[in-house]
Amino acid sequence: MELDKLVQVGLFVALLLIGYGCGRYNEQRHFRSIKQREQTHAGILCFSFKTAPADFTGRAELVTGSVVISIDYFKKVAAALRGLLGGRISAYESLLERARREALLRMKEEAKAMGAQRIINVKLETAAISKNAHKNVGAVEVIAYGTALRESESLE
Amino acid sequence: MNYSNPKLPEDTNLSTQHPLAEFVWMLGAVAATLAAALLTIHLLLAWLLPKIDFSSEVKLAGYIENQWFNSDIEKKCQPAQARLQSLVDDLAAAQGLNPDMKLTVHLVDSPEKNAFATLGGHIFILQGLLDSIESENGLAMVLAHEIAHIKHRHPIISFGRGLVSSLIIGGLGGQGADVIALSGTALLLSFSREQEQVSDQTAIASLQAHYGHSLGAQEFFIAIKQESINASRWGDFLATHPGVTARLENIQQSQRHHRGALTPMPQLLQLGCDQSE
User: Fold this and answer.
1) Interface of B with A in 46-65 (CB under 8 A)
2) Which of A55, A64, A81, B148 lies in the 20 to 30 Å Cα band around A137?
3) What does the pLDDT look like over A25-36, one tens digit per residue?
4) Which fold has domain A2-150?
C-alpha cells in the first residue's frame, strides 16, 4: 500500500520532470527557429483586407499553413493548478503563440513557393485535439489561410 | 499599396515569469489552502464528534468489524480476560468515567506487545504486552491509558477524521472513496500525539486515585523502548506512539514525591492465555 503510493508519486514527479525538461527545450528551440524564419520571410506581407487592390492584375490563390503542437505533462499540471486558482495560463499562452506564428510562417512559405509577395484576407483558426479525453495530454491545431496575390508574369 | 508588416514586440503574448517559479507559487498556494481547510475540518470534527451519544457509537461499532467485537473469545483466554475486565472496571471508576459508558476488554492471544482502544468502548490487550509487564501497576497504566482514550472520545474523533480524509482523498483522486477499506481501519485507529499525551496525564491521575501513587507506570514504556533498541520492527509502533522518551519523563516527573509498594501481577494475568484448563 505504502510502496504503491510511493510509486505513484515517483511516477508523477518523473512525468513532471520529463515534461518540464523536454517541453522547455523544445519550446526554446522552436522560438529560435520561429524568430529566424520570420526574418527570412519578412518580405512576404500579410494583410486582413478582403479584396485585392484595384490596380492588381495578377492571379489570386488560396494558401494555407497548419501546425499541431502537443502540450507536455508539466504544462498540463500547471494549467490544472491555474484551473483552481484562476489567472493567465501562461503555460498555454506560449504554446498558442508558437502555434499561431508557426502556422503563419508555413503559409508564407507556401506563398513564397508559388512566387507571391502578398497575402490578403489572412485568417487564423484554432482547434483543440482530444479536448474531451481528460486522461490524454492535449494538443492544439492552428491553421492560417489567406489569398496569395501573384503578380502577372508579363509585368516582370 | 503602400503598407508594410512591422516587427511585432516579442513579449506581448508571453509571460516574463519563469515557468518553474510560477509552478512553485501555484503549488504552494493550493497546498496552503488545502492544509488550512484540512486543519479547520480536523478541529471542527474534534469539537463536533464528542457530541455524538456514546450509545450511538456502540451501535456504529456493531456495524463494523463484527468479527472482532462480537466474536467468541478463545476459551483459554477467558479466565484472564474476566480478571482484566474487573481491573478495567475498577480503573474506570477511579477515573470518574461515566457509568453509562460500558467498557469491554478483549484479551488476544498474540505475541505482539500492544494494546489499543477503539469504537464502542472496546479495549484490546495483546498477550505479548501482559508478558512484558511485571506488576499490576504497569498493566493498570496501559489500561487506564486506553480507558482515557475512550473517556476523551478519541476513537470516534479518529474514526470521523479518517472517514472525512478518505472521502476528501477519494474525491480529489476521482476514484470514489474506498469506504469498504475504512471498516478495516476502524479497528486500528491512530491517535494524535496530543491525544496520547492527554491520555497519559489522565491515566497517571487514575493510578494515583486507585493505588495512591503512580509507581510502576513506566514498565510498558521501558519494555517497548528496549524492544525498539533491540529490533527495528517496532519502528511502526513508535511511529504511531511518538516520543516514548518524552512520555517516560512525564511519568517519572509525576512519581517524584510518591512512595508506595507495587501490587504484584495477579496469578491469572501472569499466565494470560497460556494457563492450562
Assistant:
1) none
2) A64
3) 999 999 999 999
4) Translation Initiation Factor IF3 (3.30.110)
